[in-house]
Amino acid sequence: MPSLAEEISSRRTFAIISHPDAGKTTLTEKLLLYTGSIQTAGSVKGKSSAKHAVSDWMDIEKQRGISVTSSVLQFTYEGHCVNILDTPGHQDFSEDTYRTLMAADAAVMVIDGAKGVEAQTVKLFKVCALRGIPIFTFVNKLDHETRDPFDLMEEIESVLGIGTYPMNWPIGNGRTFRGVFDRASRHVLAFEGDGRANATKRVEEVEAELGDPALDELVGEENHRNLMDDIELLDGADHEFDLEAVRTGKLSPVFFGSALTNFGVEPFLRDFLRLAPAPSAHVDAETGELVDPASDVFSGFVFKIQANMDRNHRDRIAFLRICSGKFERGMDAWHVQGERKVKLATGTAMMADDRATVDEAFAGDIVGLFDPGIFSIGDTLCTPGKRVRYAGIPTFAPEHFARISQVDTLKRKQFVKGMEELAQEGAVQIFRELGAGMESVIVGVVGVLQFEVLEQRLKSEYHVEVYRQALPYNEVRWVENPPDELDVRTLNLTRETLRVENMRGERLLLFTSPWNLDWAIEHNPELRLSEFGNVTF
């Protein structure tokens, strides 16, 4: 039986990030297909397709072919236990993505070979760079016409500020695409499209040396000649592969392939598992010391809460990233923020909305815990008597606001329950005017599509229809002064500025323009404001 240290060292936990439509969810599907986790990958290209991506479980995801919540997928491959955090690809869901990246030890950045580095890629990369986690790049869609690979690498380096090292090199592109050359093995991986979008055929690796006439027949004379020139340039480059630079997020290994046709996915997976780090140590916020993942002390933090994944049971699942030790079903744990002992009666391993009960899990794993309503995002669980507390997860300020009220006033109870539970997941933030009730609330979101998701989920999961009225606010600040020091009702503010509180009673100010914000600061010298809140709902 493997030891605790061996179990943990076999773990790999990573997030996949990209701009919308770069192929992130498709790559996730193919990783699962190659590892035997699913039998057929579901294409997310067409809205009319009967199949949907395994990692997309919400109705709106299946209808639009996008990912709007973070899915957690686990599989085993060649002695490794792999946890994939399939983050939302839609640009409106950066806050959920940010929280999910807090639970990852590495990131895979998917880039469209024709479009290069796009806006959302830049935003998500910056979040990864702040944590200094390793970033692996998969340049996708080589079976379509793409940009010059040298130009793509130069753009990654100049726009993102990270070094690149191509692990393989494409041979042609689009109609002339014939495969990739693996720089380490000096082998050619030949591509043969089978004419189907979601190919399930495995490709074969061919041993052939550059300059071998057999390569002319395999990839074409012109492709062979161009490949020799490109490899000579790459081999003559100044920098060598530096694993330490990869581990510290300063150098990104680059892989070329086509997720839709399965090409280059399995070699990428093998190299990734070889190069990516095992679970990393997290800092105990109270002592400032690193917590050893292989410690006997169990600890972890909640980074996501999802309500009603199983509509038949109206459940709430708290996603826990295990940071140290071992989880065992039925174990007792100390809920640090709640200052109480809780029994972790059931742990689940997730495959989107499919789940299986797990008896044990280790540092690096993600487990879903049944949440009776006691957990919040950022909460720490640990072994009783062995207190560990991890830093909370920051909350981004919303950028869009709307007033939400129920159509049927007789459904107030369902409305309040639905708004509170969905807000606890962290996709939206709920505010109310000081002293007001819950007949109508102000909802703040990072991206406008979240309003549509909120309305659809309230209707389908809580049977509540709502009115939505857009509000002009675009700036929000948390009031840092304690209530006994400052009464916000006495502040000198413009008429357009709104005083609100969130569900935890924290006070905030909503502004319609930077001018109104400047007025508040200038006319209230005692007022202390913060752009971020460490709130969870």
The biggest sheet, with number of strands, parallel, antiparallel or mixed sense and barrel status, is: 8 strands, antiparallel
Tell me the helix content.
Answer: 10-25%
Oligomerization category of the chains in this entry:
single chain
Q: List the total number of helices.
A: 13
**Mean pLDDT score, rounded?**
83
DSSP strand content: 25-35%
Distance between the termini: 42 Å
What topology, given as strand order, has the largest sheet? 18-17-23-14-15-22-19-20
- Count of extended strands: 31
Which word captures the global form?
Answer: globular
Contiguous uncertain segments of 5+ residues: 39-70, 195-200
Radius of gyration: 25 Å
Q: What structural class should be given to the helix and strand makeup?
A: alpha+beta
Give an overview in words.
There is one protein chain. The chain has 537 residues and is of the alpha+beta class. It has 13 helices and 31 strands. The strands form six sheets. An eight-stranded antiparallel beta sheet has the order 18-17-23-14-15-22-19-20. Strand 12 and strand 13 (290-291) form a beta hairpin. It starts with a helix and ends in a 7-residue tail after the last strand. The relative contact order is 0.11.
